[in-house]
Amino acid sequence: MIVNLEAKVSALEAATWLESAGVCRHRVYAWRSEGRITQVGQRGRSPLYRWGDVLEAEAETRMSGLSHRTSGCRSCERAAERERDLVPA
Ligand SMILES: [Zn+2]
Fold first, then answer.
1. Ligand 1 centroid to 26 CA: how many Å?
2. Distance between CA 88 and CA 36 in Å, rounded?
3. Helix 27-34 to helix 11-20 angle, to the nearest 10 degrees?
4. Cα–ligand 1 centroid distance for 34 (angstroms)
5. CA of 19 to the centre of ligand 1 (A)
6. How many angstroms separate the alpha carbon of residue 41 from the centre of ligand 1?
7. Of 72, 70, 40, 87, nearest to 14 (Cα)?
8. What is the pLDDT along the chain (89 residues), one digit of tens a residue?
9. CB-CB contact of 42 with 25 (8 Å)
10. Where exactly are the structural domains of the chain?
11. 86 phi/psi in degrees, rounded to 5
12. Phi-psi sector, 54: left (phi>0), alpha (psi -120 to 50), beta
Protein backbone atom coordinates (compact mmCIF):
# COMPACT_ATOMS: atom_id res chain seq x y z
CA MET A 1 0.00 0.00 0.00
CA ILE A 2 1.37 3.37 -1.05
CA VAL A 3 0.77 6.14 1.48
CA ASN A 4 2.21 9.08 -0.43
CA LEU A 5 -0.72 10.60 -2.32
CA GLU A 6 1.64 12.45 -4.62
CA ALA A 7 3.34 9.24 -5.70
CA LYS A 8 3.12 8.42 -9.40
CA VAL A 9 1.94 4.99 -10.43
CA SER A 10 1.44 3.28 -13.76
CA ALA A 11 -2.00 1.99 -14.73
CA LEU A 12 -0.70 -1.54 -14.29
CA GLU A 13 0.52 -0.84 -10.74
CA ALA A 14 -2.80 0.80 -9.88
CA ALA A 15 -4.74 -2.12 -11.37
CA THR A 16 -2.68 -4.65 -9.43
CA TRP A 17 -3.35 -2.82 -6.19
CA LEU A 18 -7.08 -2.51 -6.97
CA GLU A 19 -7.34 -6.19 -7.62
CA SER A 20 -5.78 -6.92 -4.23
CA ALA A 21 -8.36 -4.52 -2.73
CA GLY A 22 -11.18 -6.45 -4.40
CA VAL A 23 -11.91 -3.88 -7.10
CA CYS A 24 -12.01 -4.87 -10.73
CA ARG A 25 -8.71 -3.98 -12.38
CA HIS A 26 -10.48 -2.77 -15.51
CA ARG A 27 -11.79 0.20 -13.55
CA VAL A 28 -8.46 1.96 -13.94
CA TYR A 29 -8.98 2.08 -17.68
CA ALA A 30 -12.58 3.23 -17.26
CA TRP A 31 -11.43 6.01 -14.92
CA ARG A 32 -8.82 7.04 -17.42
CA SER A 33 -11.40 7.36 -20.20
CA GLU A 34 -13.79 9.17 -17.84
CA GLY A 35 -11.07 11.62 -16.93
CA ARG A 36 -11.13 10.79 -13.22
CA ILE A 37 -7.43 10.12 -13.27
CA THR A 38 -5.14 12.19 -15.41
CA GLN A 39 -1.65 11.51 -16.58
CA VAL A 40 0.98 13.29 -14.52
CA GLY A 41 4.11 11.76 -15.94
CA GLN A 42 5.67 9.03 -17.97
CA ARG A 43 7.96 6.11 -17.18
CA GLY A 44 9.36 4.56 -20.33
CA ARG A 45 6.26 4.05 -22.42
CA SER A 46 3.89 3.87 -19.45
CA PRO A 47 1.83 6.89 -18.52
CA LEU A 48 1.86 7.60 -14.79
CA TYR A 49 -1.06 8.69 -12.65
CA ARG A 50 -1.30 10.43 -9.30
CA TRP A 51 -1.87 7.87 -6.58
CA GLY A 52 -4.25 10.18 -4.68
CA ASP A 53 -6.50 10.39 -7.75
CA VAL A 54 -6.60 6.59 -8.00
CA LEU A 55 -7.61 6.33 -4.33
CA GLU A 56 -10.27 8.98 -4.77
CA ALA A 57 -11.76 7.26 -7.82
CA GLU A 58 -11.69 3.95 -5.95
CA ALA A 59 -13.53 5.45 -2.95
CA GLU A 60 -16.17 7.00 -5.21
CA THR A 61 -16.63 3.73 -7.05
CA ARG A 62 -16.95 1.85 -3.77
CA MET A 63 -19.56 4.30 -2.44
CA SER A 64 -21.53 4.11 -5.68
CA GLY A 65 -21.85 0.36 -5.13
CA LEU A 66 -19.87 -0.53 -8.24
CA SER A 67 -16.87 -1.98 -6.49
CA HIS A 68 -18.01 -5.54 -6.98
CA ARG A 69 -15.53 -7.27 -9.21
CA THR A 70 -17.84 -7.94 -12.09
CA SER A 71 -20.84 -5.67 -11.57
CA GLY A 72 -21.14 -3.33 -14.50
CA CYS A 73 -17.79 -4.32 -15.94
CA ARG A 74 -18.20 -5.70 -19.44
CA SER A 75 -14.66 -7.00 -19.54
CA CYS A 76 -15.26 -9.09 -16.42
CA GLU A 77 -18.67 -10.22 -17.63
CA ARG A 78 -17.17 -11.37 -20.90
CA ALA A 79 -14.43 -13.22 -19.03
CA ALA A 80 -17.03 -14.89 -16.81
CA GLU A 81 -18.99 -15.96 -19.88
CA ARG A 82 -15.87 -17.43 -21.42
CA GLU A 83 -15.21 -19.34 -18.21
CA ARG A 84 -18.74 -20.72 -18.15
CA ASP A 85 -18.30 -21.90 -21.71
CA LEU A 86 -15.11 -23.71 -20.76
CA VAL A 87 -16.62 -25.56 -17.81
CA PRO A 88 -18.21 -28.83 -18.97
CA ALA A 89 -21.83 -29.14 -17.90
ZN1 LIG B 1 -13.47 -6.00 -14.94
1. 4
2. 41
3. 130
4. 15
5. 10
6. 25
7. 40
8. 678 999 999 999 999 988 888 788 888 888 898 899 999 999 999 999 999 999 998 888 777 765 554 456 778 788 888 888 887 76
9. no
10. 8-86
11. -85, -20
12. alpha
